[in-house]
Amino acid sequence: MKHARALLKDVEGYVPGEQPKDPNIIKLNTNENPYPPSPMALEALKAIGADALRKYPDPLATALRAKWAEIQHYSGAEWVVAGNGMDELLAMAVRTFADPGDTILTTYPTYTLYETLAKLHGARVEAIELDDAYQLPESFFRCKGRMCFLPRPNAPTGVCVPREDVERLCAEFNGLVVIDEAYVDFADDNCMDFPARHENAIVMRTFSKSYSLAGLRLGLAVANPAIIEEFLKTKDSYNLNAVTQAVGLAALNDCEHMKRNASRVAATRKRATGALQELGFEVTPSQSNFVLARWDKKPGARTIFEKLRNHKIFVRYFDAPRLRDALRITIGTDGEMDALIAALRHIVK
Length: 349
Prior knowledge:
By secondary structure, this protein is α/β, with parallel strands linked by helices. The chain has twelve helices and twelve strands.
């Protein structure tokens, strides 16, 4: 296309997981939470008045940022920036802190949006292979770059890099370390305290997973106030609408609801992992609301993926190195996981 930027010819747009139109499909392909959001969030949604829609929203989402700072034990909103989903925060990080030609470090396998965002900005991506246990190899700590994207837990493996390794990375890496904690509410620990001790650490969260608000589009990042000041220069003027701010704030006032749902998901994850292993799958130890289930026998993983679709069950298959023999399966309700296991038992018998 002659009018497009020259660099776009080498960029493949990020492809999200399929959103089926059939309401009868069991949807285990996009890591949404199977349980509803907080009743307080739903009440806030119902209470949105005409004025909230007629007027511009707070351009800085001040109340939301201040509440997140309070919950995470930071002194105020100056430590927080809000985004239209965490994907916007990732894009803002590249736009704010990387120049065209700079190197952005990440792992492989990982969230493919990182590479797309870097290429859209003309930056160079250096993806270092994780080891056989999906942990950081020693070579990762010797790499240099303007920025590093580190998902913890990792997608699509669900594996967590130990906190001490992330601490070492923040101490030794010469650029910014963006710690993507999209799934951390399903994990045993987190790195939210790192920005207070490492001026190059940025910790990002999303409301799409544990808060059951994927349709709302809300992400929050914590970093040194000097970093937040730079973020605020590059964000869209009104990047967070009034509905998102009101509902997000209500959800934060009911964190216990989120924690209960996350615990339910973790319990189902444990049970589903055992059932998958009994069927012969090798399941990577997951700290997320999904599992990566490997299948090295016939029929292959792609065939299982396609046959599950015939059973109206959607999971995720990646036609990529180290992932072609695996399925990424979102943890649904107990009933949904029972249906999955029953279908798999029929397929792989």
